[in-house]
Amino acid sequence: MNNEPFMKPPEQSDEPWETTVRDIARDFAYPPTPDIARQVRQRLVKPRRPVVGVLKWAVAVLLALTVIIIGVPQVRAYVVEIIRIGAIQIFVGQPTVTPTSKPAATGMPTEAQPTSLNLASALQMPNETTLDEANKQFNEPIQLPTYPTGIGKPDHVYVQHMNPGVLVTLVWLTPSEPDHVWLTLDVLNENLVGSKFIDNDGQYHNVRVNNTPAQWLTGLHQIGFFGGDTQIFRNVNGNVLIWLVGQYGKLTYRLEGASTSDEAVHIAESMRDAGTP
Questions:
Q1: How, if at all, do strands 81-85 and 212-217 pair?
Q2: Distances (CA, A) of 251 to 87, 167, 186
Q3: Pairwise CA distance, residues 115 & 232, whole Å
Q4: How many CA atoms lie within 13 A of 135 on its CB side?
Q5: Are 216 and 257 in contact (CB under 8 A)?
Q6: pLDDT per position in the chain (277 positions), as tens?
Q7: CB of 257 closer than 8 Å to CB of 123
Q8: Where are the domains of the chain?
Q9: What gap in Å lies between CA 73 and CA 79, rounded to an integer?
Q10: How many helices (H) does the chain have, and how many strands (E)?
Q11: How do strand 88-92 and strand 230-237 relate by DSSP bridges?
Q12: Which residues pair with 193 in a beta bridge?
């Protein structure tokens, strides 16, 4: 047995070790902290419909409508040109289809026919509401003209839910003639399809609104709106300006009633979101 007294090793300072740990910690590349809050929000929020899917649907509807119209011999003989701006297609020609007789009743159930409205005036549009309610239902800021000075808010507001598209129609009346329409503004979202039928290529002209392409149409023609199981046709006896609003032309605006293209463009370029000065 070793009788030598136990020798306590000399105490060593912890300072070098602490310094080394601090140096390693300072130079260590920590992985980024995950954004847990954002990930939780993404799981809680219902995913929106992909833009690509919406675009595919809109293109499919436009193609189907074109095929149907061109597929009718009486129409194909007259349509000489098709122009598209936003959600509206313009068919140049005279697409007057000869009505066909209804098939005899067979006692068998038939498919439900789409609701079709033929209107002589914008004042006959269904589903009248308020401007505030229209803004909520449209789910996009609706722009109003600030020119001419003192034009104010529309006298009548209508909203059509043409699944999945939405159409808002704003009507201003002539102050001295309360039953006479002065201006009509249709606002179409990207899920709606509109078609215009004009007689000849002399009725439309290329113009620009806020330095973007637009179309100016004159004379008697017809506008049709299509969506879901609803079709609305309206006769137009006046001038019309069509232009795009929003990122990538998401919304299509259609102004009816301006006396000249310069006046229509002036009105279009004066547009501001409803409720803003």
A1: unpaired
A2: 8, 10, 10
A3: 8
A4: 11
A5: no
A6: 544 443 343 444 445 444 444 544 455 454 454 554 454 445 444 444 444 454 455 445 554 555 444 444 444 434 457 888 999 999 887 644 433 334 444 555 555 567 899 999 999 999 999 999 999 999 889 999 999 999 999 999 999 999 889 999 999 999 889 889 999 999 999 999 999 888 776 788 999 999 999 999 998 888 999 988 889 999 998 899 999 998 878 899 999 999 999 999 999 999 999 754 4
A7: no
A8: 51-96+114-273
A9: 10
A10: 6, 16
A11: unpaired
A12: 226
CA distance 211 to 92: 25
- For residue 200, what are its two tokens? 């000849």
> Are 206 and 83 in contact, with CB atoms under 8 Å apart?
no
Residue 270's closest CA among 123, 152, 138, 133?
A: 152
d(CA 162, CA 269): 28
Phi-psi region of 182 (alpha: psi -120 to 50; beta: other; left: phi over 0): alpha
